[in-house]
């Protein structure tokens, strides 16, 4: 399985790695079939993501997509971060092998789950058009099947 230089760089030198004890929003998603678990922590000030951290248990693609997703949303408005797609993460990493695309989906879901947690903690209604009927924890999703 060939990985791009960017995937290897984000795997070997992950950005924003770590835990955030005073996070305003925390999202954790996982996939039992492949064993990947992603946890994203957000610090939000005046609607802007001022800091973001992640912890990921998984393969090189899972770590790289988590790292890239945090880079893409840091400094962004919360509303803009909600528009982060797995496709944008894959493109920013110069591609992923087809069997690893599900990792980018988990990264997108982890960001949404962290924002959903922030919204819930702050009494902001979750828009079904963005979050579906899901409360933000997307453990029910089956990407590896």
Structural overview:
The protein is an alpha+beta fold and 145 residues long. The chain has helices spanning 5-12, 60-73, 78-81, 86-92, 101-121, 128-131, and strands at 25-31, 36-45, 48-57. The chain has a single domain, classed as Sufe protein. Chain: A (Alpha-Beta Complex). 40% of the residues lie in helices and 19% in strands. It has a 3-stranded antiparallel beta sheet. A hairpin with a 2-residue loop joins strand 2 and strand 3 (48-57). The longest helix has 21 residues, at 101-121. It is globular and about 45 Å long.
Structural class: alpha+beta
Helix percent reads 40-55%
Q: Enter the CATH topology name.
A: Sufe protein. Chain: A
What is the level-2 CATH architecture name? Alpha-Beta Complex
């Amino acid at each position: 399985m060939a990985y791009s230089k960017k995937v290897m760089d984000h795997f070997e030198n992950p950005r924003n790695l770590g835990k955030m004890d005073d996070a305003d929003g925390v999202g954790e998603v996982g996939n039992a079939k492949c064993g990947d678990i992603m946890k994203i922590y957000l610090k939000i000030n005046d609607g802007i993501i001022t800091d973001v951290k992640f912890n990921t248990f998984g393969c090189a693609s899972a770590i790289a997509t988590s790292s890239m997703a945090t880079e893409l949303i840091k400094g962004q408005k919360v509303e803009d971060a909600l528009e982060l797609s797995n496709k944008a993460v894959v493109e920013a990493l110069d591609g992923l092998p087809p069997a690893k695309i599900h990792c980018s989906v988990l990264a997108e879901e982890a960001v949404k789950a962290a924002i959903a947690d922030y919204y819930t903690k702050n009494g902001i209604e979750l828009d079904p058009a963005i979050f579906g009927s899901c409360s933000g924890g997307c453990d029910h999703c089956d990407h590896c099947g």
